[in-house]
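Appendix B. Raw example, untouched.
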Amino acid sequence: MICRLSRHLSLIVFACYIFILLSGSTARAGHGSNKKHPSPEIKGGDTITISGFILDSHNEPVGEAEVIVKVDGSQVDRTTTAHNGKYISRFQLPKGKLQSTFLQLEIQKTSFKTELIRLKGTEILGKGGHYSAVQDVVLARVLGPAFWISTIVFIFAYVLIAFELLHRTIAAMLGAALMMLISYTLGTINPAYHIFSFEAAIASIDMNVIFLLMGMMMIVGVLKHTGVFQWCAYFAYKLAGGRVFILVIYLMIFTAVSSAFLDNVTTMLLLTGVAIEICTSLSLNPLYMLIPLVLASNVGGTATLIGDPPNIMIGSYAGLTFMDFVIALAALCGVSLVVLVIFSKLIWGKDYAATKVENVKEYIQVLKEEYRITDPALLAYGLGVLAFAVLLFLTHGYWHMEVSIAALIGGAILVTIAIVTGKANLIELIEKDIEWPTLMFFIFLFIIVGAVESTGLLALIADWILQLSRGNFVAACSLILWVAAIMSAFVDNIPFTATMLPIVAYLSSVIPGAQNTLWWALALGACFGGNGTIIGASANVVTMGIAESRGYRITFGGFMKTAFPYMVISVLIAHGWLLIFRPS
């Protein structure tokens, strides 16, 4: 009872936290104005307005920069830039004083060099007591204490995640909390240690990603209670007619297609147990089926915007639609899946051939009884709602609608149907089917990446890649693809993708002919690279963990021995595809 109450309380606390996040975002969006320190009003004086944008060396807006306006050395106004870098300073001077004076703008922010701009009063134009000037300013980066502290904390969190020294959600939360704690303690004593504000931390969270994942989790959570995934495994065996390799092909195709529209971790969670039982009855080592299936899951998830978390993050950040992903990547993923079938035949073909079923018809009947649809009515509702959500995914570009809205309305409708008809329990659905640790991980990860972006680490990496590629598209595309693939094989591809988003955005804007191709290079590298090792993708970890709990353990080296060569082959295919077709 106490445990159940504590779970409920934790959910309520988390829900309140999300509400606070949204409220803070709404408040900022509603105001959209700069923090002001207005000068005293002078009766009958001249009103001067100075406005413009504060940008960094990448032409990205610098939010929360302080703009101090001085007249003949005396401060007359102080304002702060908005999130888009815009500032507006408005103050008054005695009548006629403007033409005989000098104005100085002092722009300062942690991790940037303080910039001083001097304006002559005669350069500010206007009449009738109202004068204005536009002054845009570019700030140079400075690698100060905030940069080094945020970089160390960032690397520390990455090490904890990559080597699984702590649960990734706890590691991300620890990193985000440290960033903010340092900003408001050391940063208060000395502004050089201020990494970013709480408002900037909240603004860095991409709620489109959070809500998309939440909506899809609700849809899948209801569908899995119908037994549809287990029934599909039975149907695949029936079609294969007892031929194991044909069964593996059918299951690989089903897994890839399912992972394109559902989270690949969820797909493997639902299929792994069924696959193990089928393999056990066939006296086949389940790993010979599970490894091809998890590789197919990662390939299939690459084909669409909603198939894999890195794609969700890329689509949301770059403004790419569901159809953009399908047009650019689906055919390539199909080719990679065909190559995977051939690869599986070469690696495990003899084991498949050695497996025989004594009585195929009898075994099919056993599977039919064991893996049947448990709730046809709920399945019909679920498939209808899923089809509606997919239709919205396909057309969301036309409606100018975020994909998260499609997922949320689908999840809300299906959960409502399940609850009203008594097919599901609300508390159980919320507690077990929505993966709160995953959502929290994303929230804290966005904060960590926002911190190092604010202090200039990502700008430094982007400049390094640009210099290394010398602004050449082929070199930049190759670097992004292979660095993403190798890194994603050994560290979680989600934090890596989050780190690369601003970098690829900058490179796409400065390299001629890049268009969206560099985004596809990042998506392919992050998703295909996840196939390289057992820790490269969450689906790998989950699948092999279930197999180990059933007594079928594979080592890090054992998985890498078979999976890494296929990862290299698939990335080579992707490399050639990007350079030849340059999907935009």
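End of appendix B.
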